[in-house]
Write a structure and sequence with these properties.
The complex is a heterodimer.
Chain A (H helix, E strand, L loop, with lengths): L2 H21 L7 H25 L5 H18 L7 H30 L7 H29 L14 H21 L6 H20 L7 H23 L2 H24 L4 H6 L2 H8 L12 H10 L2 E6 L1 H6 L2 H13 L3 E6 L9 H8 L7 E3 H4 L8 E5 L8 H4 L18 E6 L19 E5 L2 H16 L2
Parallel strand pairs in A: 1-2, 1-4, 2-3, 4-5, 5-6
Chain B lengths: L1 H9 L13 H20 L6 H12 L3 H9 L5 H31 L29
Helix pairs in contact in B: 3-5, 4-5
Classes of the chains: A alpha/beta, B mainly alpha.
Chain lengths: 473, 138
């Protein structure tokens, strides 16, 4: 058996393991097997590649070992971040993935150019190279910026940044990059070709910034998913360049995952892809803010506790506010205390609650709330009319009834959790200002709604104390 | 999108691109099939696990390490090519290590019932069974 056959066999097994890895993610029961399968697949991929490299006479093994060690040294602490920082970590890791693809593409091009290798720079390869660096470097800067926004780094604007002719200028730059790409495909070895290549790199880096800068926090789940897809597609393009089927398959798996998550996120916000990328949310918000002041009806935490004790079904709707305040452990105390009194407690999870897909589920799982009580929006909505209490913790747009009724609202048409159908509503809110989208929420002004103002963690903590204190057994 | 353009522009000509036994139609077939498999597999992933799914696919996309290795280990390549490859190895390894570790860390937290199987304080009745939220029972 030749070395190449052995390498291909290892790649074949690795591919199967990658597919199984994702297959096992269909159920929390088997999901950890999926991780082991993924680790095994990656190990086989690296071993196979090394075997191939050794067989064809490679060098620099100590340097390579050093790069592996350095990567592991940085990767390990990145895996230990608190779970509230998972969206930033994910964005950062997309950035690393994009950069790796972009650098390999760059290295390959300059290698062939230096060798004056006309055969290697066939139109197909050059197209793949251009796609690889475009997607790679765009993902790199876009993800860095997204991570910065999520981490709330001071000098990065949190609010969507919009300016006149934004889309026109973006499209013009894109057309320029495309023109450079076509020129490169036609004349990959021309003396000016490396400059065109460099130009595409710079434009891609700029694109990443320009695509993410008009995105607000509420759109982050969609954008992170799109960047995930781009990172995968850049690996696919690398596979075309290197004629490596393992890269193509694994990249395609990643790309389709990003694609599906983006579609789910878009549906959950009733927006199209195009709209998320080109129709900055900020423009619609500006006019919605303002208008006459309405009065909130406040209540004491003590009476909220009394109402909840009497309830038979309490539905908790968590949102980004719970994550920011790190209130999940206090929420767990309330959950326990209510359960002890025979109250059924369920969590209503909106697909875009938080800053990345599935964000709330992970935080609540961290607080050891059994996942069987975390219920998707579509499933819980049928139960909400029977709910005695809906407790809203730092969620806003995902429970705003304007999405159902008010055609002028920027969130009109977005599927929401029907918290307004519960018999009584308690809403925990940081301040009296409108939420992230700058839209008033009618839910807060219903007769049956009572506001509890304050930091989610301290309000929920106080609620737990009251629930614990008054039982007396 | 760009990949699709590549397809339409190159579907007919360029036989034997000269780069080893480059088989780009074969590569496109693999890409197409892998995308379909990916879409079908991912559609079945429990919504509960979308965050771990994303960190797992992060780690999987670090398969770029394969390309980075090939570039870094090439003999007689100019130094800057090797350097680019080594940085790419570093980036990919970061994703492999942190991606798999954090995915496992998160998945460990998903428990069906508190305190494992034993405690389950005197058989509290499990309410509203339809609330199992799309999780397929195995």
């Amino acid at each position: 058996m030749s070395a190449d056959t052995l390498v291909q066999l290892l790649y074949l097994v690795s591919t199967a393991l990658f597919i199984m890895s994702l297959r096992w993610m269909s159920d929390p029961e088997t999901a950890r097997k999926g991780v082991f399968s993924g680790v095994a697949a990656m190990t086989l991929a690296v071993v196979g590649t090394l075997a191939g490299v050794i067989a064809t006479g490679g060098t620099h093994y100590w340097w390579i070992l050093g790069a592996f060690a350095a990567g592991a040294a940085v990767g390990y602490p990145l895996a230990q971040v608190p779970l509230t920082a998972v969206p930033q970590r994910t964005a950062l890791s997309h950035a690393f993935g994009g950069l790796a693809a972009g650098l390999v593409g760059t290295a390959k091009y300059f290698l062939y150019f230096g060798q004056h290798n006309e055969a290697a720079l066939s139109p197909f390869i050059v197209i793949a190279l251009v796609a690889e660096i475009l997607l790679g470097f765009l993902t790199f800067t876009g993800s860095i910026l997204a991570a910065g926004k999520l981490q709330e780094v001071k000098w990065i604007p949190q609010r969507p940044v919009t300016y006149p002719l934004q889309n026109v200028s973006n499209l013009a730059l894109f057309a320029l990059a495309l023109a450079l790409g076509v020129a490169l495909v036609l004349h990959p070895l021309a003396p000016w070709a490396p400059w065109a290549f460099g130009g595409i790199i710079l434009l891609s880096l700029a694109f990443g910034v320009l695509l993410v800068i008009p995105i607000g926090g509420a759109d982050m789940p969609t954008v992170i998913s799109i960047l995930n897809a781009y990172a995968g597609l850049s690996a696919v393009a690398m596979g075309f360049v290197l004629n490596n089927k393992l890269l193509i398959t694994a990249g395609a798996l990643d790309g389709s995952s990003g694609l599906i998550l983006s579609i789910i996120m878009c549906k959950a916000m009733n927006r199209s892809f195009f709209n998320v990328l080109f129709g900055a949310f900020g423009q619609a918000q500006a006019k919605a803010a303002g208008g006459e002041e309405k009065a909130y009806k406040e209540d004491t935490i003590e009476s909220a506790a009394q109402v909840m004790e009497q309830a038979s079904l309490v539905v908790i709707v968590p949102g980004y506010g719970m994550a920011v305040a790190q209130a999940q452990h206090k929420v767990r105390e309330v959950y326990d205390l209510l359960k002890k009194r025979g109250v059924t407690v369920k969590f209503a999870i909106h697909p875009v609650a938080g800053r990345m897909p599935g964000h709330m589920n992970v935080l609540l799982a961290e607080a050891e709330i059994p996942y069987t009580d975390l219920v998707e929006m579509d499933e819980i909505n049928g139960d909400l009319p029977q709910a005695d209490v809906a407790l809203i913790i730092g969620a806003n747009d995902v429970v705003n009834p304007a999405a159902r009724s008010d055609k002028t609202s920027p969130i009109y048409g977005m599927p929401i959790i029907d918290a307004d159908k519960a018999k009584t509503i308690y809403a925990i809110k940081r301040s009296k200002a409108p939420g992230f989208a700058g839209i008033d929420n009618e839910l807060y002004f219903l007769d049956k709604t009572f506001m509890l103002f304050g930091d989610a963690k301290s309000v929920v903590g106080e609620l737990a104390r009251k629930l614990a204190g008054e039982g007396g057994h | 999108m760009i990949i699709l353009m590549a397809l339409s522009e190159n579907a007919a000509p360029v036989a034997g691109g000269g780069h080893g036994e480059l088989d780009f139609m074969g590569a496109l077939f693999v890409f197409m099939l892998a995308t379909f498999i990916g879409v079908m597999v991912i559609q079945r992933v429990s919504r509960l696990l979308h965050t771990p799914l994303m960190s797992l696919t992060n780690a999987i996309s670090a398969i770029a390490v394969v390309g980075a290795l090939i570039v870094s280990a090439g003999k007689d390549y100019p130094g800057y090519i090797t350097a680019l490859g080594l940085i790419a190895i570093f980036c990919s390894t970061t994703n492999i290590v942190s991606g798999f570790l954090i995915t496992d860390r998160m998945l460990k937290m998903f428990k069906k019932r508190e305190g494992g199987s034993i405690s389950a304080s005197k058989g509290e009745p499990e309410h509203a069974s339809r609330a199992i939220g799309g999780v397929a029972k195995s």
